[in-house]
Specification:
The chain is built from seven helices and three strands; from the N terminus they run H-H-H-H-H-H-H-E-E-E. The protein is mainly alpha-helical and 158 residues long. Strand 1 and strand 2 form a beta hairpin.
């Protein structure tokens, strides 16, 4: 695939997800993946420039994977339906805030981006409309998830 076609595939995918190219680039840098970070973060196979789920019989269960990985350290299990509701409405049950913090701190950025896209598809929204907001105090820092991005700010939780 020619370079311009690869770039266009990335731009098109950013548009689908409601991300600017600059924002996607920042997510790729944050992912700390050495090679092909931008395509992987956007859920694109860097060899074919197609969706990582394109040739699968069924797409990966990104919401389920994020919910399960967030539940490994906690007594209460985060169901994918609760995660979907939190992403769609921004309302996070108090008992699942630690789970959301775990997703923000530990889950791969690709998993988060793809889970947000899957949640948007299931709820009939655009990925950019996902409204979940979580603030977690860890080591005197605030982690905030807004839409399909991760933001890091110094300072205490307000």
């Amino acid at each position: 695939m020619e370079r311009w076609a690869r770039v266009q595939a990335l731009v098109d995918r950013c548009t689908q997800l409601g991300l600017s190219v600059e924002h996607a680039r920042r997510l790729a840098v944050e992912s700390r993946q050495v090679r092909h970070a931008l395509p992987w973060v956007l859920g694109i196979n860097p060899e074919t420039m197609e969706s990582v789920d394109l040739h699968r019989r069924e797409p990966r269960r990104w919401l389920w994977m994020c919910a399960q990985s967030a539940s490994t350290s906690y007594h209460e299990i985060l169901a994918q339906e609760v995660l979907l509701q939190a992403l769609a409405t921004g309302a996070i049950p108090v008992n699942f805030i630690p789970h959301m913090c775990h997703i923000l701190e530990e889950a791969s950025i690709q998993s988060v981006v793809m889970a947000v896209e899957q949640a948007a598809q299931r709820s009939g929204m655009l990925p950019a409309q996902m409204r979940s907001q979580t603030k977690c105090e860890r080591k005197r820092a605030t982690f905030e998830f807004t839409g399909n991005t991760r933001l890091y700010t110094q300072g205490p939780v307000e």
